[in-house]
Amino acid sequence: MSRPTLTAVFVAFLLTSSVAKPNAKDKKPKQVVPAIECDMRAGKINLPEFIVKCPAKCRETKEKVYGTGVFASISSICNAAIHNGVITNSGGKVIVMKMGGQVTYKGSFANGVRSLSLPNWRDSFSVSVGKPKKGVIYPSTLIFVPSRPTAENTVSPATEPSSTAAPPTTTHVTTPIATAPPITTSATPRVTVHEVREAGRSHPYFSSVAHSSYSVPNTSYKWNRMSTGDPTVLDPRPDNTEYEQYGQYPPEPEDHKPLSETGHTKDCKVDIAFLMDGSWSIGKRRFKIQKDFLVDVSQVISVGVAGPMMGIIQYGDDPVTEFSLKQFSSSKDLKPAISKIVQKGGLSNVGKALSYINKNFFSDANGNRGGAPNVAVVLVDGWPTDKVEEASRLARESGINIFFVTIEGPDENEKQNVVETNFVEKAVCRTNGFFSLPITSWFALRKEVQSLVKRVCDTDHLVCSKTCLNANDIAFVIDGSSSVGTGNFRTVLQFVANVTQEFEISDTDTRVGIIQYTYEQRLEFAFGQHNNKADLLNAIKRINYWSGGTSTGAAITYAADQLFSKSKPNKRKIMIVITDGRSYDDVRAPALAVHRKGVIAYSIGIAWAAQDELEYIATDPDREHSFFVDEFDNLYKYVPKIIHNICNEFNSQPRN
């Protein structure tokens, strides 16, 4: 037998290799990740667990999120992932796992996304980083919950399908390449308008939670005109077409609370004082129209201990309480009580009436519940006969949300008779029209019942109430010594800007002042010197590095004298000391002095800062108010912790 040639041997080797190839280890299949939009809710996807890819800039869309850590299924997947620190605002992959319903979903602020509270929603989900575990392949096709007609959107009898008609087909969105079959599950029940409305929502005051990462938030609202066409009636509700397939308006429980078919609001828990005009200028007929208006309002808001409570003050020369918040617990009882009110007469002293409610009306003895926002609705015929600005400011700083309803206000010729020009703008906390309702005629007043009720019940936008973000005077005391250096000083200023960015800045909200110190002290700017966020952030950026020694104790005393001595009443006084070394003077006595004056002190030490001094400076407990970082570049990590602690401390205190 002849020997095989070299070519034959090589061919045989190739054939043997190709036969053995199927026994080799299979190549790992590639995970294909479906892309979604920012508005995609977890409840719309009919899969128990799946992976998706979020686009960039979802945070700017303001798509709603409910809960913290575990989110209600009507939440935006992408914004929930940003809130939880799973992705940044640049987008990315997210793994979603469906869960059972929760008793409550607590709102918080994290990573630039403000989540809202919601009670008792039946489905929930969690999010995690989009890196599947070894051997796990998620569906490359998303299966959507089928849409079904609602009771309000049914077909007519002539075209109604028979009972044997096939059920709606499931909608799929398929990526170009599918490497794994879709997981199929039993249909998830569709979110209905009725169930969202029944779920309601809890009070909007929130406490922040520790962020897993920090990014500068975008806290602006997008205002749209309401369908009334009235340019003064603003609706802080984003355009939303997700629920159009159901033939009805999107059931967002956090926006303007819907009115039921009978006209009653749902979940409107506020304590409302109506200041009715009893002056002689109003006349008997218009006084009767005013009473009828208040009767209409009392019936629409559905007064009760679980919802809104309502009291009335009549003002003229002097204010008098017609009945307190706790006097009537039902709309039925309010109606005859309002009808029996007798006009007092006198001037139209609105400022005096506002001072009265601030000092006397919203008290525990009068039925103030503490857990509900305080609202004062002032009805004014024409214009006040006294000044309102100072009384309004003090009332707002006490947490009272002031609305002005002006009927037949002054025309151009009458404005010269007004005691205080632009009195409405000076009285309310925002001039965007939300807190003011001008009515051209008394005969048009009763047409505005629904508009007013929507506003006073929109607790997410009662921004004059005190919260942890709008009720502070914050003093930053910054070490400018030679050991810091120019570059590190800029890092400190960025840290200060990041903390400041989280707060609502204005003369009636949070105010910020800054002191830089070496052996000496320099007031960079005082409380109220910069009354909007943009100006304040620019002022921080412009601070120049000083250089010198380190006298922290003297700087604390200087802050007490130059800043906190001018702090407003009803403001929380907060001091944040940032230093990188041991002080040349004593810090204990100055720190104790400011503690005794009610200042909440935080200390942040960097590099060579002395731990004992940081603890002396900080308010007890030290672990909540004193922090240390090994280098300046790590300062940013403590932004969320400080905001979290400030809000936790605020929310643990009784309101008003």
TrEMBL record:
- A UniProt-annotated Pfam family: VWA
- Compositional bias (Low complexity) spans? 154-184
* InterPro entries referenced in this protein's UniProt entry, alphabetically: ECM_Assembly_Org, LCCL, LCCL_sf, VWF_A, vWFA_dom_sf
Domain VWFA stretches: 271-456, 473-642
UniProt region (Disordered), positions on chain: 151-184
> Which residue ranges does the record assign to the LCCL domain?
32-125
Task: From the UniProt record, give one GO term of the biological process aspect.
Answer: sensory perception of sound
> What is one cellular component GO term in this UniProt entry?
extracellular region
Q: Which residues form the signal peptide?
A: 1-20
**Intracellular or extracellular location(s):** Secreted
Q: Which UniProt keywords apply?
A: Disulfide bond, Glycoprotein, Repeat, Secreted, Signal
Q: State the protein's purpose.
A: Plays a role in the control of cell shape and motility in the trabecular meshwork.
- What is the protein name for this chain? Cochlin
Q: Which organism is it from?
A: Cyprinus carpio carpio
